[in-house]
Amino acid sequence: METTKITKSSSSIEWGKIFRSYGTVIAGVIITIIFSVLNPDSFATLDNAINISRQISFLVIIGIGATIVMSVSEFDLSIGAIASLGGVIAAKIAASGGPIWIAFLAPVLVALVVGFINGWIVTQFRVLSFITTLAMSTILGGFTFWLTGGATIFENIPDSFRLVGQKSLLGIPLLSIVMLLITILFWYVMTQTAFGRRLYAIGGNESASRIAGLRVKWNKNAAFALGAALAALTGVLMASRLGSAHPTAGNGLFLQAYAAAYLGMTSFKEGVPNIWGTFVGAAIIGILANGLTIMQVPTFMQDVITGLIVIAAVIMQKFGRGSR
Amino acid sequence: MKKAVSVLLSIIFIISLAACSGGNSSKDGEKNVSIMTPFLSSVTTNEMVEALKKQAADHGWKANVIDTKGDVGQLASRMEDVIASKTDAIIIVSTDPNQLKAQIQSAKEKNIPVMGCDAGYIEGMTMNATSDNTEMSKMITTHLFDTIGKKGNLVALTYRAHPGVLKRTLFLDQMLSENADVKKVTEMQVEVPGPIESARKQMESLLLANKEPGSITAVWTGWDEPAIGAAQAIEASGRKDIVVIGIDGNSQAVEMIKKGSPLIATVKQNFPGMAEIVAQQLDLVFQGKAVEGTELYAPASLITKDQG
Questions:
Q1: Whole-prediction pTM value?
Q2: ipTM of the complex
Protein backbone atom coordinates (compact mmCIF):
# COMPACT_ATOMS: atom_id res chain seq x y z
CA MET A 1 0.00 0.00 0.00
CA GLU A 2 2.71 2.42 1.10
CA THR A 3 4.70 1.86 -2.10
CA THR A 4 1.67 2.59 -4.27
CA LYS A 5 1.03 5.87 -2.43
CA ILE A 6 4.61 7.05 -2.92
CA THR A 7 4.55 6.20 -6.61
CA LYS A 8 1.30 8.11 -7.16
CA SER A 9 2.62 11.11 -5.23
CA SER A 10 5.90 11.37 -7.19
CA SER A 11 4.05 10.96 -10.47
CA SER A 12 1.78 13.87 -9.53
CA ILE A 13 4.77 16.05 -8.58
CA GLU A 14 6.47 15.27 -11.87
CA TRP A 15 3.44 16.40 -13.87
CA GLY A 16 3.20 19.53 -11.74
CA LYS A 17 6.84 20.35 -12.37
CA ILE A 18 6.51 19.76 -16.08
CA PHE A 19 3.43 21.90 -16.24
CA ARG A 20 4.90 24.76 -14.23
CA SER A 21 8.15 24.67 -16.15
CA TYR A 22 6.80 24.31 -19.64
CA GLY A 23 3.22 25.60 -19.31
CA THR A 24 3.73 28.36 -21.89
CA VAL A 25 5.26 25.97 -24.40
CA ILE A 26 2.43 23.50 -23.82
CA ALA A 27 -0.11 26.33 -24.28
CA GLY A 28 1.66 27.29 -27.54
CA VAL A 29 1.47 23.71 -28.81
CA ILE A 30 -2.22 23.45 -27.88
CA ILE A 31 -3.00 26.77 -29.59
CA THR A 32 -1.27 25.47 -32.73
CA ILE A 33 -3.24 22.22 -32.58
CA ILE A 34 -6.56 24.09 -32.17
CA PHE A 35 -5.86 26.28 -35.22
CA SER A 36 -4.64 23.28 -37.23
CA VAL A 37 -7.80 21.31 -36.50
CA LEU A 38 -10.13 24.23 -37.20
CA ASN A 39 -8.28 25.37 -40.34
CA PRO A 40 -6.36 22.48 -41.86
CA ASP A 41 -6.38 23.96 -45.37
CA SER A 42 -5.08 27.42 -44.51
CA PHE A 43 -3.29 27.27 -41.16
CA ALA A 44 -1.73 23.83 -41.11
CA THR A 45 0.28 24.22 -44.29
CA LEU A 46 3.99 24.48 -44.95
CA ASP A 47 3.47 27.81 -46.71
CA ASN A 48 1.78 29.24 -43.63
CA ALA A 49 4.47 27.89 -41.31
CA ILE A 50 7.04 29.70 -43.47
CA ASN A 51 4.77 32.74 -43.43
CA ILE A 52 4.63 32.73 -39.60
CA SER A 53 8.39 32.26 -39.29
CA ARG A 54 8.92 35.34 -41.47
CA GLN A 55 6.31 37.38 -39.61
CA ILE A 56 7.69 36.68 -36.13
CA SER A 57 11.28 37.44 -37.13
CA PHE A 58 10.96 41.15 -36.25
CA LEU A 59 9.33 40.46 -32.91
CA VAL A 60 11.91 37.81 -32.01
CA ILE A 61 14.87 40.06 -32.81
CA ILE A 62 13.55 43.17 -31.04
CA GLY A 63 12.27 40.92 -28.21
CA ILE A 64 15.78 39.51 -27.72
CA GLY A 65 17.00 43.11 -27.38
CA ALA A 66 14.31 43.77 -24.75
CA THR A 67 15.29 40.51 -22.99
CA ILE A 68 18.93 41.55 -22.71
CA VAL A 69 17.92 44.87 -21.11
CA MET A 70 15.46 43.06 -18.81
CA SER A 71 18.22 40.67 -17.75
CA VAL A 72 19.84 43.58 -15.87
CA SER A 73 16.41 44.48 -14.40
CA GLU A 74 15.94 47.56 -16.59
CA PHE A 75 13.50 48.55 -19.35
CA ASP A 76 14.11 50.30 -22.63
CA LEU A 77 10.95 52.02 -23.84
CA SER A 78 12.80 53.57 -26.77
CA ILE A 79 13.27 50.34 -28.74
CA GLY A 80 10.21 51.04 -30.93
CA ALA A 81 11.46 54.52 -31.81
CA ILE A 82 14.97 53.12 -32.43
CA ALA A 83 13.48 50.54 -34.81
CA SER A 84 11.66 53.31 -36.71
CA LEU A 85 14.83 55.41 -36.87
CA GLY A 86 16.89 52.40 -37.96
CA GLY A 87 14.56 51.71 -40.88
CA VAL A 88 14.56 55.34 -41.94
CA ILE A 89 18.37 55.70 -41.84
CA ALA A 90 18.78 52.48 -43.82
CA ALA A 91 16.19 53.47 -46.41
CA LYS A 92 17.70 56.94 -46.77
CA ILE A 93 21.18 55.51 -47.41
CA ALA A 94 19.83 52.87 -49.81
CA ALA A 95 17.67 55.40 -51.68
CA SER A 96 20.61 57.80 -52.04
CA GLY A 97 22.63 55.08 -53.77
CA GLY A 98 24.89 54.24 -50.84
CA PRO A 99 26.36 50.75 -50.45
CA ILE A 100 23.79 48.31 -49.09
CA TRP A 101 26.12 46.96 -46.41
CA ILE A 102 26.45 50.51 -45.06
CA ALA A 103 22.65 50.89 -45.17
CA PHE A 104 22.42 47.80 -42.95
CA LEU A 105 25.36 48.59 -40.68
CA ALA A 106 25.05 52.35 -40.09
CA PRO A 107 21.71 52.25 -38.22
CA VAL A 108 23.03 49.48 -35.96
CA LEU A 109 26.11 51.57 -35.10
CA VAL A 110 23.97 54.66 -34.47
CA ALA A 111 21.72 52.58 -32.20
CA LEU A 112 24.72 51.20 -30.28
CA VAL A 113 25.62 54.80 -29.42
CA VAL A 114 22.00 55.72 -28.56
CA GLY A 115 21.65 52.63 -26.36
CA PHE A 116 24.94 53.35 -24.64
CA ILE A 117 23.77 56.92 -23.93
CA ASN A 118 20.54 55.51 -22.46
CA GLY A 119 22.56 53.22 -20.22
CA TRP A 120 25.03 55.94 -19.28
CA ILE A 121 22.23 58.31 -18.17
CA VAL A 122 20.53 55.53 -16.19
CA THR A 123 23.68 54.34 -14.43
CA GLN A 124 25.55 57.63 -14.09
CA PHE A 125 22.68 59.75 -12.78
CA ARG A 126 20.64 56.89 -11.26
CA VAL A 127 17.57 57.94 -13.24
CA LEU A 128 14.78 55.39 -13.74
CA SER A 129 15.23 53.64 -17.05
CA PHE A 130 11.49 54.11 -17.73
CA ILE A 131 11.88 57.88 -17.70
CA THR A 132 15.20 58.05 -19.51
CA THR A 133 14.19 55.78 -22.36
CA LEU A 134 10.73 57.34 -22.64
CA ALA A 135 12.41 60.72 -23.12
CA MET A 136 14.87 59.18 -25.59
CA SER A 137 11.93 57.71 -27.48
CA THR A 138 10.40 61.16 -27.84
CA ILE A 139 13.71 62.65 -29.01
CA LEU A 140 14.24 59.90 -31.57
CA GLY A 141 10.62 60.17 -32.78
CA GLY A 142 11.15 63.86 -33.46
CA PHE A 143 14.49 63.21 -35.14
CA THR A 144 12.94 60.54 -37.38
CA PHE A 145 10.13 62.89 -38.42
CA TRP A 146 12.70 65.57 -39.17
CA LEU A 147 14.70 63.13 -41.31
CA THR A 148 11.66 62.07 -43.33
CA GLY A 149 9.50 65.19 -43.24
CA GLY A 150 6.85 62.81 -41.92
CA ALA A 151 6.62 61.01 -45.26
CA THR A 152 7.24 57.39 -46.13
CA ILE A 153 10.52 56.74 -47.94
CA PHE A 154 10.02 54.39 -50.86
CA GLU A 155 11.39 56.06 -53.97
CA ASN A 156 14.70 54.93 -55.50
CA ILE A 157 15.14 52.05 -53.06
CA PRO A 158 17.16 49.45 -55.01
CA ASP A 159 16.15 45.80 -55.27
CA SER A 160 19.37 44.81 -53.51
CA PHE A 161 18.10 46.50 -50.33
CA ARG A 162 14.94 44.38 -50.45
CA LEU A 163 16.89 41.14 -50.87
CA VAL A 164 17.15 40.14 -47.17
CA GLY A 165 13.58 41.13 -46.41
CA GLN A 166 11.91 39.51 -49.38
CA LYS A 167 14.02 36.63 -50.70
CA SER A 168 14.37 33.02 -49.60
CA LEU A 169 17.13 30.43 -49.52
CA LEU A 170 16.03 26.89 -50.35
CA GLY A 171 12.45 27.94 -49.66
CA ILE A 172 13.26 29.43 -46.24
CA PRO A 173 12.91 33.22 -45.98
CA LEU A 174 16.23 34.96 -45.33
CA LEU A 175 14.46 36.85 -42.53
CA SER A 176 13.73 33.57 -40.76
CA ILE A 177 17.34 32.46 -41.16
CA VAL A 178 18.61 35.79 -39.74
CA MET A 179 16.17 35.40 -36.83
CA LEU A 180 17.43 31.90 -36.03
CA LEU A 181 21.09 32.90 -36.25
CA ILE A 182 20.53 35.86 -33.92
CA THR A 183 18.58 33.71 -31.46
CA ILE A 184 21.33 31.09 -31.34
CA LEU A 185 24.06 33.74 -31.10
CA PHE A 186 22.43 35.57 -28.18
CA TRP A 187 21.40 32.35 -26.45
CA TYR A 188 25.12 31.49 -26.51
CA VAL A 189 26.17 34.96 -25.35
CA MET A 190 23.65 35.06 -22.50
CA THR A 191 24.14 31.53 -21.19
CA GLN A 192 27.59 30.35 -22.21
CA THR A 193 29.77 33.42 -21.76
CA ALA A 194 31.00 35.29 -18.70
CA PHE A 195 29.39 38.47 -20.08
CA GLY A 196 25.91 36.90 -20.13
CA ARG A 197 26.32 35.47 -16.65
CA ARG A 198 27.44 38.88 -15.39
CA LEU A 199 24.27 40.46 -16.80
CA TYR A 200 22.07 37.91 -15.02
CA ALA A 201 24.07 38.37 -11.81
CA ILE A 202 23.55 42.15 -11.96
CA GLY A 203 19.86 41.70 -12.70
CA GLY A 204 19.53 39.25 -9.80
CA ASN A 205 21.26 41.39 -7.20
CA GLU A 206 22.94 44.60 -8.26
CA SER A 207 24.41 45.45 -4.86
CA ALA A 208 25.90 42.01 -4.40
CA SER A 209 27.35 42.15 -7.92
CA ARG A 210 28.96 45.49 -7.16
CA ILE A 211 30.45 44.16 -3.93
CA ALA A 212 31.67 41.12 -5.84
CA GLY A 213 33.65 43.47 -8.06
CA LEU A 214 31.53 43.38 -11.23
CA ARG A 215 31.58 46.54 -13.38
CA VAL A 216 27.88 47.11 -13.02
CA LYS A 217 27.69 50.40 -14.93
CA TRP A 218 29.71 49.18 -17.88
CA ASN A 219 27.73 45.96 -18.17
CA LYS A 220 24.40 47.77 -17.95
CA ASN A 221 25.52 50.24 -20.62
CA ALA A 222 26.48 47.30 -22.82
CA ALA A 223 23.05 45.70 -22.26
CA PHE A 224 21.28 48.90 -23.32
CA ALA A 225 23.59 49.25 -26.34
CA LEU A 226 22.94 45.66 -27.48
CA GLY A 227 19.19 46.03 -26.98
CA ALA A 228 19.17 49.21 -29.08
CA ALA A 229 21.35 47.65 -31.79
CA LEU A 230 18.92 44.74 -32.15
CA ALA A 231 15.99 47.18 -32.27
CA ALA A 232 17.68 49.12 -35.09
CA LEU A 233 18.42 45.89 -36.94
CA THR A 234 14.71 45.03 -36.64
CA GLY A 235 13.82 48.39 -38.19
CA VAL A 236 16.29 47.84 -41.04
CA LEU A 237 14.92 44.36 -41.76
CA MET A 238 11.37 45.72 -41.66
CA ALA A 239 12.28 48.43 -44.18
CA SER A 240 13.90 45.75 -46.34
CA ARG A 241 10.77 43.62 -46.18
CA LEU A 242 8.34 46.48 -46.88
CA GLY A 243 10.63 48.12 -49.45
CA SER A 244 9.90 51.38 -47.65
CA ALA A 245 10.44 53.10 -44.32
CA HIS A 246 7.72 54.83 -42.37
CA PRO A 247 8.66 57.22 -39.53
CA THR A 248 6.55 55.25 -37.04
CA ALA A 249 6.94 51.76 -38.51
CA GLY A 250 8.64 50.23 -35.46
CA ASN A 251 6.66 52.01 -32.74
CA GLY A 252 4.03 49.28 -32.45
CA LEU A 253 6.68 46.65 -31.78
CA PHE A 254 7.87 47.77 -28.37
CA LEU A 255 4.86 46.68 -26.31
CA GLN A 256 4.73 43.37 -28.14
CA ALA A 257 8.46 42.87 -27.56
CA TYR A 258 7.95 43.09 -23.81
CA ALA A 259 4.85 40.90 -24.02
CA ALA A 260 7.00 38.29 -25.80
CA ALA A 261 9.76 38.63 -23.21
CA TYR A 262 7.28 38.27 -20.33
CA LEU A 263 5.67 35.25 -21.96
CA GLY A 264 9.20 33.94 -22.39
CA MET A 265 9.93 34.27 -18.69
CA THR A 266 7.31 31.61 -18.09
CA SER A 267 8.90 29.22 -20.58
CA PHE A 268 11.70 26.75 -19.91
CA LYS A 269 11.33 27.04 -16.11
CA GLU A 270 13.84 29.86 -15.59
CA GLY A 271 11.32 32.49 -14.48
CA VAL A 272 13.87 35.05 -15.68
CA PRO A 273 14.19 36.77 -19.08
CA ASN A 274 15.70 34.19 -21.43
CA ILE A 275 16.39 34.10 -25.15
CA TRP A 276 14.56 30.92 -26.18
CA GLY A 277 11.69 31.89 -23.93
CA THR A 278 11.33 35.17 -25.81
CA PHE A 279 11.44 33.20 -29.04
CA VAL A 280 8.54 31.05 -27.81
CA GLY A 281 6.68 34.15 -26.56
CA ALA A 282 7.04 35.87 -29.93
CA ALA A 283 6.01 32.68 -31.70
CA ILE A 284 2.84 32.42 -29.59
CA ILE A 285 1.94 36.06 -30.32
CA GLY A 286 2.66 35.49 -34.03
CA ILE A 287 0.70 32.23 -34.18
CA LEU A 288 -2.26 33.83 -32.40
CA ALA A 289 -2.31 36.81 -34.78
CA ASN A 290 -1.94 34.58 -37.83
CA GLY A 291 -4.45 31.94 -36.73
CA LEU A 292 -7.08 34.38 -35.54
CA THR A 293 -6.78 36.41 -38.75
CA ILE A 294 -7.20 33.28 -40.83
CA MET A 295 -10.22 32.41 -38.65
CA GLN A 296 -11.58 35.90 -39.41
CA VAL A 297 -11.82 36.74 -35.72
CA PRO A 298 -12.38 40.52 -35.39
CA THR A 299 -9.18 42.42 -34.59
CA PHE A 300 -10.50 43.85 -31.32
CA MET A 301 -11.07 40.29 -30.12
CA GLN A 302 -7.50 39.39 -31.12
CA ASP A 303 -6.19 42.15 -28.85
CA VAL A 304 -8.37 40.96 -25.97
CA ILE A 305 -7.15 37.40 -26.37
CA THR A 306 -3.47 38.35 -26.63
CA GLY A 307 -3.77 40.51 -23.51
CA LEU A 308 -5.56 37.77 -21.58
CA ILE A 309 -2.91 35.24 -22.51
CA VAL A 310 -0.08 37.51 -21.32
CA ILE A 311 -1.90 37.99 -18.00
CA ALA A 312 -2.52 34.25 -17.71
CA ALA A 313 1.15 33.55 -18.44
CA VAL A 314 2.31 35.98 -15.78
CA ILE A 315 -0.05 34.34 -13.27
CA MET A 316 1.34 30.93 -14.21
CA GLN A 317 4.85 32.28 -13.71
CA LYS A 318 3.84 33.33 -10.20
CA PHE A 319 2.67 29.76 -9.46
CA GLY A 320 5.95 28.48 -10.85
CA ARG A 321 7.97 30.73 -8.57
CA GLY A 322 5.81 29.91 -5.62
CA SER A 323 6.55 26.26 -6.07
CA ARG A 324 10.27 26.66 -5.58
CA MET B 1 -1.00 22.76 -9.79
CA LYS B 2 -4.80 22.94 -9.93
CA LYS B 3 -4.67 26.73 -10.27
CA ALA B 4 -2.11 26.49 -13.07
CA VAL B 5 -4.18 23.88 -14.90
CA SER B 6 -7.23 26.11 -14.63
CA VAL B 7 -5.28 29.03 -16.11
CA LEU B 8 -4.13 26.86 -19.03
CA LEU B 9 -7.63 25.54 -19.58
CA SER B 10 -8.93 29.12 -19.55
CA ILE B 11 -6.47 30.05 -22.31
CA ILE B 12 -7.60 27.12 -24.42
CA PHE B 13 -11.25 27.93 -23.75
CA ILE B 14 -10.81 31.62 -24.72
CA ILE B 15 -9.10 30.73 -27.98
CA SER B 16 -11.63 28.06 -28.86
CA LEU B 17 -14.46 30.49 -28.14
CA ALA B 18 -12.85 33.22 -30.24
CA ALA B 19 -12.09 30.81 -33.02
CA CYS B 20 -15.66 29.63 -33.06
CA SER B 21 -16.96 33.21 -33.01
CA GLY B 22 -14.81 33.99 -36.04
CA GLY B 23 -17.40 32.64 -38.37
CA ASN B 24 -14.84 31.38 -40.84
CA SER B 25 -17.34 29.28 -42.65
CA SER B 26 -18.67 30.93 -45.76
CA LYS B 27 -21.75 29.77 -47.52
CA ASP B 28 -21.12 27.96 -50.79
CA GLY B 29 -20.05 30.43 -53.46
CA GLU B 30 -20.05 33.37 -51.02
CA LYS B 31 -17.09 35.68 -51.67
CA ASN B 32 -14.80 36.57 -48.78
CA VAL B 33 -13.60 40.18 -48.91
CA SER B 34 -10.85 41.32 -46.52
CA ILE B 35 -11.07 45.03 -45.64
CA MET B 36 -7.72 46.15 -44.21
CA THR B 37 -6.54 49.40 -42.65
CA PRO B 38 -4.19 50.67 -39.96
CA PHE B 39 -6.46 53.65 -39.18
CA LEU B 40 -9.91 52.31 -38.24
CA SER B 41 -10.14 54.74 -35.31
CA SER B 42 -10.10 57.67 -37.74
CA VAL B 43 -13.65 58.97 -38.28
CA THR B 44 -13.32 59.10 -42.06
CA THR B 45 -11.61 55.73 -42.41
CA ASN B 46 -14.28 54.24 -40.18
CA GLU B 47 -16.98 55.79 -42.36
CA MET B 48 -15.42 54.21 -45.43
CA VAL B 49 -15.08 50.80 -43.76
CA GLU B 50 -18.73 50.93 -42.67
CA ALA B 51 -19.78 51.90 -46.20
CA LEU B 52 -17.67 49.04 -47.62
CA LYS B 53 -19.27 46.58 -45.18
CA LYS B 54 -22.70 47.74 -46.30
CA GLN B 55 -21.71 47.43 -49.96
CA ALA B 56 -20.36 43.93 -49.28
CA ALA B 57 -23.62 42.92 -47.58
CA ASP B 58 -25.64 44.34 -50.49
CA HIS B 59 -23.58 42.31 -52.96
CA GLY B 60 -23.84 39.14 -50.84
CA TRP B 61 -20.12 39.08 -49.92
CA LYS B 62 -18.72 38.25 -46.50
CA ALA B 63 -16.64 41.16 -45.17
CA ASN B 64 -13.75 40.67 -42.74
CA VAL B 65 -12.40 43.90 -41.24
CA ILE B 66 -8.78 43.99 -40.05
CA ASP B 67 -7.28 46.99 -38.24
CA THR B 68 -3.67 47.20 -37.02
CA LYS B 69 -3.86 50.44 -35.03
CA GLY B 70 -1.37 52.50 -37.00
CA ASP B 71 1.13 49.66 -37.48
CA VAL B 72 1.91 49.15 -41.17
CA GLY B 73 4.32 46.28 -40.48
CA GLN B 74 1.47 44.41 -38.81
CA LEU B 75 -0.78 45.25 -41.73
CA ALA B 76 1.72 43.58 -44.08
CA SER B 77 1.68 40.46 -41.87
CA ARG B 78 -2.10 40.35 -41.68
CA MET B 79 -2.28 40.78 -45.45
CA GLU B 80 -0.06 37.71 -45.82
CA ASP B 81 -2.44 35.86 -43.49
CA VAL B 82 -5.54 36.63 -45.54
CA ILE B 83 -3.66 35.68 -48.71
CA ALA B 84 -2.82 32.35 -47.00
CA SER B 85 -6.48 31.96 -46.08
CA LYS B 86 -7.34 32.29 -49.80
CA THR B 87 -9.54 35.37 -49.43
CA ASP B 88 -11.34 36.34 -52.64
CA ALA B 89 -10.36 40.03 -52.56
CA ILE B 90 -8.47 42.55 -50.46
CA ILE B 91 -9.51 46.19 -50.03
CA ILE B 92 -6.90 48.42 -48.40
CA VAL B 93 -8.34 51.58 -46.87
CA SER B 94 -6.44 54.85 -46.23
CA THR B 95 -3.10 53.10 -46.63
CA ASP B 96 -0.05 53.92 -48.71
CA PRO B 97 0.29 50.84 -50.97
CA ASN B 98 3.99 51.57 -51.42
CA GLN B 99 4.46 50.04 -47.97
CA LEU B 100 2.79 46.81 -49.07
CA LYS B 101 4.48 46.24 -52.42
CA ALA B 102 5.63 42.69 -51.71
CA GLN B 103 2.24 41.66 -50.31
CA ILE B 104 0.37 43.24 -53.24
CA GLN B 105 2.64 41.34 -55.62
CA SER B 106 2.06 38.13 -53.68
CA ALA B 107 -1.74 38.64 -53.89
CA LYS B 108 -1.47 39.27 -57.63
CA GLU B 109 0.47 36.02 -58.09
CA LYS B 110 -2.38 34.19 -56.32
CA ASN B 111 -5.00 36.00 -58.47
CA ILE B 112 -6.43 37.87 -55.46
CA PRO B 113 -7.50 41.37 -56.55
CA VAL B 114 -6.24 44.22 -54.34
CA MET B 115 -8.46 47.30 -54.42
CA GLY B 116 -7.74 50.65 -52.78
CA CYS B 117 -10.29 52.85 -51.04
CA ASP B 118 -8.79 56.30 -50.53
CA ALA B 119 -5.39 54.62 -50.71
CA GLY B 120 -3.12 55.10 -53.71
CA TYR B 121 -2.54 53.07 -56.82
CA ILE B 122 0.61 51.13 -57.60
CA GLU B 123 1.49 48.37 -60.06
CA GLY B 124 -0.06 45.07 -58.98
CA MET B 125 -3.26 46.60 -57.61
CA THR B 126 -6.53 46.31 -59.50
CA MET B 127 -7.73 49.88 -58.88
CA ASN B 128 -8.12 52.64 -56.30
CA ALA B 129 -11.09 54.91 -55.64
CA THR B 130 -10.41 58.22 -53.99
CA SER B 131 -11.10 61.89 -54.14
CA ASP B 132 -8.88 64.03 -56.29
CA ASN B 133 -6.78 65.29 -53.40
CA THR B 134 -5.09 68.01 -55.42
CA GLU B 135 -8.46 69.26 -56.64
CA MET B 136 -9.89 69.28 -53.10
CA SER B 137 -6.85 71.12 -51.76
CA LYS B 138 -7.21 73.64 -54.58
CA MET B 139 -10.88 74.15 -53.67
CA ILE B 140 -10.31 74.70 -49.94
CA THR B 141 -6.94 76.51 -50.11
CA THR B 142 -8.27 78.97 -52.67
CA HIS B 143 -11.30 79.57 -50.43
CA LEU B 144 -9.00 80.17 -47.43
CA PHE B 145 -6.65 82.50 -49.30
CA ASP B 146 -9.62 84.48 -50.64
CA THR B 147 -11.10 84.71 -47.12
CA ILE B 148 -7.91 86.24 -45.65
CA GLY B 149 -7.38 88.50 -48.68
CA LYS B 150 -4.29 86.58 -49.78
CA LYS B 151 -2.34 88.16 -46.93
CA GLY B 152 -1.48 86.94 -43.44
CA ASN B 153 0.32 84.38 -41.28
CA LEU B 154 -0.59 80.76 -41.75
CA VAL B 155 -0.06 77.67 -39.61
CA ALA B 156 -0.12 74.28 -41.34
CA LEU B 157 -1.11 71.16 -39.41
CA THR B 158 -0.65 68.11 -41.59
CA TYR B 159 0.57 64.53 -41.86
CA ARG B 160 2.72 64.08 -44.94
CA ALA B 161 3.05 60.32 -44.33
CA HIS B 162 -0.47 59.80 -45.71
CA PRO B 163 -0.39 59.83 -49.51
CA GLY B 164 -3.67 61.75 -49.87
CA VAL B 165 -2.76 64.34 -47.24
CA LEU B 166 0.65 64.70 -48.85
CA LYS B 167 -0.94 65.65 -52.18
CA ARG B 168 -3.10 68.26 -50.39
CA THR B 169 -0.09 69.66 -48.57
CA LEU B 170 1.96 69.82 -51.76
CA PHE B 171 -0.76 71.97 -53.31
CA LEU B 172 -0.63 74.25 -50.26
CA ASP B 173 3.15 74.53 -50.81
CA GLN B 174 2.43 75.57 -54.41
CA MET B 175 -0.16 78.18 -53.35
CA LEU B 176 2.23 79.57 -50.74
CA SER B 177 4.98 79.93 -53.32
CA GLU B 178 2.55 81.82 -55.59
CA ASN B 179 1.27 84.12 -52.79
CA ALA B 180 4.25 85.79 -51.16
CA ASP B 181 2.07 87.81 -48.75
CA VAL B 182 0.84 84.65 -47.06
CA LYS B 183 3.65 83.63 -44.72
CA LYS B 184 3.91 80.17 -43.19
CA VAL B 185 4.49 80.58 -39.43
CA THR B 186 5.16 76.89 -39.02
CA GLU B 187 4.17 73.46 -40.25
CA MET B 188 3.57 70.74 -37.69
CA GLN B 189 3.02 67.02 -38.18
CA VAL B 190 -0.08 65.87 -36.32
CA GLU B 191 0.15 62.62 -34.37
CA VAL B 192 -1.92 59.71 -35.68
CA PRO B 193 -3.84 58.09 -33.94
CA GLY B 194 -5.22 60.89 -31.76
CA PRO B 195 -5.14 63.77 -34.27
CA ILE B 196 -7.75 65.98 -32.53
CA GLU B 197 -5.95 65.99 -29.19
CA SER B 198 -2.56 66.30 -30.86
CA ALA B 199 -3.65 69.28 -32.99
CA ARG B 200 -5.34 70.92 -30.02
CA LYS B 201 -2.15 70.74 -27.95
CA GLN B 202 -0.03 71.99 -30.84
CA MET B 203 -2.42 74.90 -31.40
CA GLU B 204 -2.53 75.81 -27.70
CA SER B 205 1.26 76.07 -27.69
CA LEU B 206 1.31 78.07 -30.92
CA LEU B 207 -1.28 80.49 -29.54
CA LEU B 208 0.83 81.03 -26.43
CA ALA B 209 3.87 81.66 -28.58
CA ASN B 210 2.00 84.04 -30.93
CA LYS B 211 -0.12 86.23 -28.66
CA GLU B 212 -0.10 89.40 -30.81
CA PRO B 213 -3.28 89.93 -32.85
CA GLY B 214 -2.56 89.07 -36.46
CA SER B 215 0.46 86.92 -35.60
CA ILE B 216 -1.61 83.96 -36.79
CA THR B 217 -4.29 84.67 -39.38
CA ALA B 218 -5.28 81.20 -40.51
CA VAL B 219 -4.77 77.51 -39.81
CA TRP B 220 -4.62 75.15 -42.78
CA THR B 221 -5.09 71.51 -41.84
CA GLY B 222 -4.64 68.40 -43.95
CA TRP B 223 -7.96 66.93 -42.85
CA ASP B 224 -10.85 67.65 -40.51
CA GLU B 225 -9.71 66.10 -37.24
CA PRO B 226 -6.73 68.45 -36.71
CA ALA B 227 -9.02 71.28 -37.84
CA ILE B 228 -11.43 70.38 -35.03
CA GLY B 229 -8.60 70.28 -32.46
CA ALA B 230 -7.16 73.60 -33.67
CA ALA B 231 -10.58 75.29 -33.70
CA GLN B 232 -11.28 74.06 -30.15
CA ALA B 233 -7.97 75.53 -28.94
CA ILE B 234 -8.68 78.87 -30.66
CA GLU B 235 -12.20 79.02 -29.22
CA ALA B 236 -10.91 78.23 -25.73
CA SER B 237 -8.32 81.00 -25.99
CA GLY B 238 -11.01 83.52 -26.94
CA ARG B 239 -9.15 84.61 -30.09
CA LYS B 240 -11.53 85.87 -32.78
CA ASP B 241 -8.99 86.73 -35.46
CA ILE B 242 -8.02 83.24 -36.63
CA VAL B 243 -9.85 81.05 -39.15
CA VAL B 244 -9.38 77.31 -39.69
CA ILE B 245 -10.11 75.07 -42.64
CA GLY B 246 -10.24 71.30 -42.91
CA ILE B 247 -10.83 68.69 -45.59
CA ASP B 248 -13.06 65.58 -45.51
CA GLY B 249 -16.42 66.96 -44.32
CA ASN B 250 -16.83 64.76 -41.25
CA SER B 251 -20.02 65.35 -39.29
CA GLN B 252 -18.37 67.00 -36.26
CA ALA B 253 -16.53 69.47 -38.49
CA VAL B 254 -19.68 70.31 -40.46
CA GLU B 255 -21.57 70.91 -37.21
CA MET B 256 -18.85 73.29 -35.97
CA ILE B 257 -18.88 75.18 -39.28
CA LYS B 258 -22.65 75.64 -39.12
CA LYS B 259 -22.43 76.86 -35.49
CA GLY B 260 -19.94 79.59 -36.45
CA SER B 261 -16.74 78.29 -34.81
CA PRO B 262 -13.24 79.31 -36.04
CA LEU B 263 -13.56 76.33 -38.39
CA ILE B 264 -15.05 78.08 -41.41
CA ALA B 265 -14.94 75.55 -44.21
CA THR B 266 -14.20 72.02 -45.29
CA VAL B 267 -14.44 69.98 -48.47
CA LYS B 268 -16.79 67.08 -48.16
CA GLN B 269 -15.29 63.92 -49.52
CA ASN B 270 -17.73 61.41 -50.80
CA PHE B 271 -16.62 58.39 -48.75
CA PRO B 272 -19.74 56.30 -49.36
CA GLY B 273 -19.24 57.17 -53.05
CA MET B 274 -15.68 55.78 -52.95
CA ALA B 275 -16.90 52.60 -51.27
CA GLU B 276 -19.59 52.30 -53.92
CA ILE B 277 -17.04 52.69 -56.73
CA VAL B 278 -14.79 50.03 -55.17
CA ALA B 279 -17.73 47.64 -54.77
CA GLN B 280 -18.87 48.24 -58.38
CA GLN B 281 -15.38 47.57 -59.71
CA LEU B 282 -14.94 44.50 -57.51
CA ASP B 283 -18.24 43.18 -58.78
CA LEU B 284 -16.90 43.52 -62.34
CA VAL B 285 -13.74 41.64 -61.32
CA PHE B 286 -15.81 38.84 -59.76
CA GLN B 287 -17.76 38.63 -63.04
CA GLY B 288 -14.45 38.24 -64.88
CA LYS B 289 -14.66 41.69 -66.49
CA ALA B 290 -12.04 44.46 -66.59
CA VAL B 291 -12.24 47.45 -64.24
CA GLU B 292 -13.21 50.84 -65.71
CA GLY B 293 -9.99 52.51 -64.61
CA THR B 294 -7.14 52.13 -62.16
CA GLU B 295 -7.71 55.46 -60.39
CA LEU B 296 -11.36 56.55 -60.13
CA TYR B 297 -12.56 59.67 -58.34
CA ALA B 298 -15.67 60.38 -56.26
CA PRO B 299 -16.54 64.09 -56.62
CA ALA B 300 -16.16 66.39 -53.56
CA SER B 301 -18.00 69.59 -52.56
CA LEU B 302 -17.15 72.76 -50.55
CA ILE B 303 -18.98 73.28 -47.25
CA THR B 304 -19.14 76.68 -45.51
CA LYS B 305 -21.58 78.20 -43.00
CA ASP B 306 -23.85 79.28 -45.85
CA GLN B 307 -23.05 76.63 -48.44
CA GLY B 308 -23.33 72.88 -48.58
A1: 0.75
A2: 0.71
